[in-house]
Amino acid sequence: MDAIADLVDAARSGDRAAFEQVVRLTYRETYTLALRLTGDEEDAADVSQETYLRAWRGIGRFRGDADVRTWLYRITANCAATHLGRRRRHRHDQLGTSGTEPADHHPAGDPEAAALAGAGLAELGAAVAALGPKLRAVLVLRDVYGLALAQIAEDLGISETAAKVRLHRARRALRDLVSDEGGLSRAV
């Protein structure tokens, strides 16, 4: 953690090599968040690239009050919202459901338990991807990344009340999607 703070300080002074090292150290987390927010690997790559472009442009204004990862989460959430809005206006395809959850969360050494856990994660990932982008963004930022509702509201440009309502609706929709007889039988 201290090494990243030193790299960020160097990057703030214009050191591109230090910023490139920050990118290498944080890319996986940034890409994972982008993937969870967009539900599509190509969109996640685009959002990640835009995140780091914005971060480089704004690194001089980064005060260091928050961890650089939290700062990057905020930028990623904003880039994903912008990207999804732009995509919705220009393309008519549906959000993908692949890759929304990492596959390595299963009990080691128990193939049956691993298969069941994988099936559950796949269903949950598909359910999260089926949520609309506004609901998915609030749900992922709160329940996966642990951001406070006030911070989510600020990052997404909505009121804290709206963030609470969206979180409630997202959790309810997710519960409904996962508990439906056929799994994902309803669209949100």
Tell me about this structure:
This protein is mainly alpha-helical and 188 residues long. The chain folds into two domains: 96 residues, Rna Polymerase Sigma Factor, Chain: A; 85 residues, Arc Repressor Mutant, subunit A (Orthogonal Bundle). It is 72% helix and 0% strand. It is built from eight helices and no strands. Helix 2 packs antiparallel against helix 3, helix 2 crosses helix 6 and helix 4 runs antiparallel to helix 6. The longest helix is centred in the N-terminal third of the chain and has 23 residues. The protein is elongated. About 10% of the residues have low confidence.
Explain briefly what this protein structure is.
The protein has 188 residues and is mainly alpha-helical.
Work out the number of β strands.
0
CATH-defined fold name of the largest domain: Rna Polymerase Sigma Factor, Chain: A
- What string gives the helices and strands in order? HHHHHHHH
Helical run tally: 8
Low-confidence stretches at least 5 residues in length (pLDDT < 50)? 91-108
Mean pLDDT: 79
What characteristic shape results from the CA principal axes? elongated
Compute the separation of the termini in Å: 39 Å
User: Which structural class matches the secondary elements?
Assistant: mainly alpha
Note the main sheet: none
The number of distinct structural domains comes to: 2
Q: Which radius of gyration do the C-alpha atoms yield?
A: 18 Å
Q: Judging by the overall fold, what is the CATH architecture of the largest domain?
A: Orthogonal Bundle
Q: What is the level 1 CATH name of the largest domain?
A: Mainly Alpha
- Range of strand content: under 5%
CATH H level of the largest domain: which superfamily? RNA polymerase sigma factor, region 2, helix turn helix motif
Question: Quaternary state, please?
Answer: single chain
Roughly what percent helix?
over 70%
